[in-house]
Design a protein that fits this description.
296 residues; two-stranded parallel sheet; alpha/beta; 12 strands; four-stranded parallel sheet
């Protein structure tokens, strides 16, 4: 989903793209296979590896921890070892979900102590640790609730939009009001990643669109944009019984970017509207209509 924006954001760079499946312009690579990773990094001798590969299905990770750690820890370990061996910069995409979610009044910043509460977040944090310990020239970029990717958008925004459209004109959608995060547009995230990795200031960064939202807030914005008659109902998270516990708050602040005097990412509502206009141009609405249900 995030990788679908790579070619546009890094249009001025020479790119070599990989995925689990081959297609035009993309070579097959399974990062869980150490010899494959080593051979490819040695052959390409890249300036930097942007590590987007991950198992991001939180509930599946909870049900199959072995798969979670093979994908998110072992795969990252293989890349980190190869990058150290061939002196290559590594940019590792992580998640604001590495925190326990108990900080409801204050957004998490890069100096707060991670304390993951599910296997997905634990496996991503172990990936962070192996990058920190093995690769001197590294960037760890923690993302918020990601959206974007057009037809590859399988996350919350994509699902809510599809429910609105498929259920029109009487779709009834339940969205949680008591879990909070930082909605983050994948295209904005990658643009910010590019900016940070061009500074040479290695370390851990939060890259999120500004602002705090609940899932209900986000669902209302999507429904307001599409205007197909969908009704969004605010419900407690206890109404959904899921395998993996979610933090009460994944709200993050890009504090290190602020401290370094770099441009911060725009507010999440503006980014979401921009994405929806691109993804669903046939439903285009004026900006003044956005936010009505969220404020009701």
């Amino acid at each position: 989903m995030t990788g679908s924006h790579i070619t546009s954001v890094f249009a001025q760079s020479e790119l070599f793209l990989t995925d689990l499946a081959t297609c035009e312009g993309i070579e097959k690579l399974d990062i869980r296979n150490s010899p494959e990773v080593d051979t490819l990094i040695r052959r390409l001798s890249p300036r930097m590896v942007i590590h987007l590969a991950a198992e991001t299905n939180v509930d599946f990770c909870q049900q199959d921890p072995d798969h979670a750690f093979r994908s998110n820890y072992v795969g990252t370990l293989n890349l980190a070892l190869a990058c150290r061996k061939y002196d290559v910069e590594l940019a590792y995409v992580s998640t604001a979900g590495v925190f326990d979610g108990k900080s409801l009044q204050k957004p998490y910043d890069e100096f707060d102590q991670p304390n993951p509460i599910n296997f997905y977040a634990k496996s991503k944090l172990e990936g962070e640790r192996v990058v920190q310990s093995l690769v001197p020239r590294h960037y760890i970029l923690r993302a918020g609730w990601m959206f974007g990717g057009n037809n590859k958008d399988k996350k919350f925004v994509g699902k809510i939009a599809q429910q609105c459209i498929d259920g029109a004109p009487k779709a009834k959608i339940k969205a949680v009001y008591d879990k909070f995060g930082s909605p983050t547009y994948a295209a904005d995230f990658l643009s910010c990643l590019r900016m940070v990795t061009e500074t040479g200031r290695y370390g851990t960064y939060h890259l999120v669109n500004q602002g705090k939202a609940s899932r209900y807030d986000v669902a209302c914005e999507v429904a307001n944009y599409l205007q197909v008659g969908a009704e969004v109902q605010a419900v407690a998270s206890t109404e959904f019984v899921l395998p993996a516990e979610r933090p009460d708050s994944e709200h993050a602040r890009s504090w290190k970017i602020e401290l370094l005097g770099l441009p911060t990412m725009r507010p999440w509502r503006a980014a979401l509207l921009d994405y929806l206009r691109i993804r669903f141009p046939e439903y285009s609405r004026s900006e003044s209509t956005l936010g009505v249900a969220a404020k009701a």
